[in-house]
């Protein structure tokens, strides 16, 4: 299609032909809003409010402590993990939902250090979302100098792996650019050197097929509040390959990770399965809503999700580059769809006021310092007309200089 | 009063004179149920369902990522901590609400180990709720043998403290017996020896006056889902005395504990205040409900709560001992109210089927192996007639041998 033939009607036709389009009705998106920030916080499934009401009034209010058994509260981490597992190529009993991504990374990095006692280097990507690197620094510091963290840029990672490497711990899809790392290749390279491969799936779980099992990954972590639509700060997940369970131990040895949590034994004795990565009591209400998001995913085909994700992001890049030509946007994401997650970033020296003006116009993306405007495209609820309309509003903002208005210069937002 | 004069009408008169009685209407207790298990999971405040609905539909559903700022999600840990602080004798900026009790204990024990690098012993109570001891074992193991855990029984703690002691980490009110430790005396004894005093307030926060500041306590942790009524698995709290902030560092160095979390600096640089004890993104929905429970407490006087708690538990002990005399119950809690938390335990060789029969009769307490029936009395919603009626049902169960029925012998409950 040329730009002439690619108009809003053409986008509407694409929506009409979209096999995932019916799933949009499972979400409540505010009227008039084009939500392109599902890579930060996923939208609310329509079932969330009813589920929250049921957990609060029936499970908690009426059934009280009985619900630990009758409502399955104790089993939620494992049950939700098993439900999430097919989305990331994991098997039953290999995934658990609990705690935050940072905490789960602490557990698996600590486990990796213990599994490779004669090695000393953790490799991470320097430009990664910083908490991963901070957590690795904390794990290294706790060894009193035995372990060090080496931060590499993306093209240096493979060559940095050697016989001193404990593990590579890489975020599969880069939070800022959307670049996809080659999970299979880096995992194979790490394991060939005797190192472990740890993947952070925050920006890929639910947005594209992930095959932890096929790649032979050792450990993984990720969040449930982005593409999995679990709600603000919903508990994260942790994957440990079966072969490590019972051998890989983590240091935060709370009673939920004990082999017999209700035997009240004096000494800690780890579960020999995925539950060893649990620590303490989970926030049940936040936990329960994870299931509402996962159930929508189970109604969707991941191949269709990925195909639509690539089409949406291709369309957005094309429309911005064509219709905003001359306005100073530079693509900051991989141009090739196969190398790109479900997000698109553009660099622009005035990115901050431009994003403020977009948000005021009902197009919700976000800004990442110093100059990146970032847009996420969740195939479950973003359509082709949304992309058209978002760019349309951007064209108006740029053509009419709306972003130069004083109210868009205020620097107060932190997300 | 003699037993003859102490009848249900006398209990009703006590309820009528109870200054806390109006607060019961702030809770939804199922009709016909006498809930004596608020020391395991607090009852549901009536405001909880509306608050959950608002967080889900408005803050998440309508305002989406804007709520990190506009709804104050980022500030919740500190704001809730400041709201909780007066209940435990802490000052502004000394308490934070986040994560689980086990995780928070890991942080403060790790901080204590780092603050006392030339000492080697962590002292805990052996008969404590086991997760505390497990966590301490994990912290010790992570030092590679430098640190060891010494488990004492309650009368041995003071004498065990010496110049090798890093910290004593004691649960203020024992989960099973309700015995109250002398916080001021043990803290003073520990500090006189150069050790740190860490207190677990799971069974005291909200149930009685606690004066961390007056006792000069170093660190404390506790949960919000028992007497504070925050909901199942609601996030826990952590107290660090101001003098330790900026010096005491914990090893799980996630971005929420960074001095500038949104500067995305390559290296971890700790916050120099209570926020250094944060790790990652919090479960906002579970977190938000903590405030509903705290707001009820702010309408109550802690001296009145404690006075009623002692009266309720005294009454329960007296009625059980008098009306169930000869049925084999032995008091397993301190007889003196001043030495007892807001709970009463009795030992009975058939405690398990007796508790099952009680639960079937609508009196919810719990059982702790091998032989303890445990009853919690939350002064905010338990009244004197509740105590009378609970014992009345127990009398029937014992006099008529109802607990011997086959359905009460089944061992399936875990709480």
Automatic annotation (TrEMBL), chains A, B:
Its cofactor is pyridoxal 5'-phosphate. GO terms for molecular function: kynureninase activity; pyridoxal phosphate binding. Pyridoxal 5'-phosphate binds at residues 101-102, 171, 200, 203, 225, 255, 281. GO terms for biological process: anthranilate metabolic process; L-kynurenine catabolic process; L-tryptophan catabolic process to kynurenine; NAD+ biosynthetic process; quinolinate biosynthetic process. It holds the Pfam family DegT_DnrJ_EryC1. Its EC number is 3.7.1.3. Keywords: Hydrolase, Pyridine nucleotide biosynthesis, Pyridoxal phosphate. InterPro entries: DegT/StrS_aminotransferase, Kynureninase, PyrdxlP-dep_Trfase, PyrdxlP-dep_Trfase_major, PyrdxlP-dep_Trfase_small. Pathway: Cofactor biosynthesis; NAD(+) biosynthesis; quinolinate from L-kynurenine: step 2/3; Amino-acid degradation; L-kynurenine degradation; L-alanine and anthranilate from L-kynurenine: step 1/1. GO terms for cellular component: cytoplasm. The modification N6-(pyridoxal phosphate)lysine is found at residue 226. It catalyses: 3-hydroxy-L-kynurenine + H2O = 3-hydroxyanthranilate + L-alanine + H(+); L-kynurenine + H2O = anthranilate + L-alanine + H(+). Gene3D superfamilies: Aspartate Aminotransferase, domain 1, Type I PLP-dependent aspartate aminotransferase-like (Major domain). Homodimer. Catalyzes the cleavage of L-kynurenine (L-Kyn) and L-3-hydroxykynurenine (L-3OHKyn) into anthranilic acid (AA) and 3-hydroxyanthranilic acid (3-OHAA), respectively. HAMAP family: Kynureninase. Belongs to the DegT/DnrJ/EryC1 family. This is Kynureninase. The lineage of its organism: Bacteria, Pseudomonadati, Pseudomonadota, Alphaproteobacteria, Sphingomonadales. The gene is kynU.
């Amino acid at each position: 299609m040329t730009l002439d033939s690619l108009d809003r009607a053409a986008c509407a036709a694409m929506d009409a032909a979209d096999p995932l389009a019916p799933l949009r009705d499972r979400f409540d998106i505010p009227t008039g809003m084009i939500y392109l920030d599902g890579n930060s916080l996923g939208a609310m499934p329509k079932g969330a409010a009813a589920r929250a009401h049921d957990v609060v009034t029936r499970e908690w209010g009426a059934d009280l402590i009985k619900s630990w058994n009758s409502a399955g509260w104790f089993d939620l981490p494992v049950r939700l993990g098993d439900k999430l597992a097919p989305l990331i190529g994991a098997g039953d009993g290999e995934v658990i939902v609990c705690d935050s991504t940072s905490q789960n990374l602490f557990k698996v990095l600590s486990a990796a250090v213990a599994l490779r006692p004669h090695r000393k280097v953790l490799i991470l990507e320097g430009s990664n979302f910083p908490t991963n690197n901070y957590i690795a620094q904390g794990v290294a510091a706790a060894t009193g100098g035995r372990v060090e963290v080496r931060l590499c840029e993306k093209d240096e990672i493979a060559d940095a792996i050697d016989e001193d490497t404990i593990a590579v711990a890489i975020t599969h899809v880069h939070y800022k650019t959307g670049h996809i790392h080659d999970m299979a290749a880096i995992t194979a390279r790490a394991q060939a050197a005797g190192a472990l491969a740890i993947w952070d799936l925050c920006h890929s779980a639910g947005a594209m097929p992930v095959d932890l099992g096929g790649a032979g990954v050792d450990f993984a972590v990720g969040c449930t509040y982005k593409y999995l639509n679990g709600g603000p700060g919903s508990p994260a997940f942790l994957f440990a390959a079966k072969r490590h369970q019972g051998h890989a131990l983590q240091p935060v040895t709370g009673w939920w990770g004990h082999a017999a949590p209700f035997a009240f034994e004096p000494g800690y004795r780890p579960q020999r399965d995925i539950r060893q990565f649990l620590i303490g009591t989970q926030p049940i209400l936040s936990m329960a809503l994870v299931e509402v998001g996962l159930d929508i995913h189970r109604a969707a085909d991941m191949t269709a999700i990925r195909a639509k994700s690539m089409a949406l992001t291709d369309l957005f890049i094309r429309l911005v580059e064509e219709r905003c030509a001359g306005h100073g946007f530079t693509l900051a994401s991989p141009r090739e769809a196969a190398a790109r997650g479900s997000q698109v970033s553009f660099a622009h020296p005035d990115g901050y006021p431009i994003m403020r003006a977009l948000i005021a116009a009902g197009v919700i993306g976000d800004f990442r310092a110093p100059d990146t405007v970032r847009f996420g495209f969740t195939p479950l609820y973003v359509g082709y007309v949304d992309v058209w309309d978002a760019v349309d509003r951007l064209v108006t903002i740029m053509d009419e200089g709306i972003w130069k208005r004083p109210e868009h210069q205020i620097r107060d937002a932190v997300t």
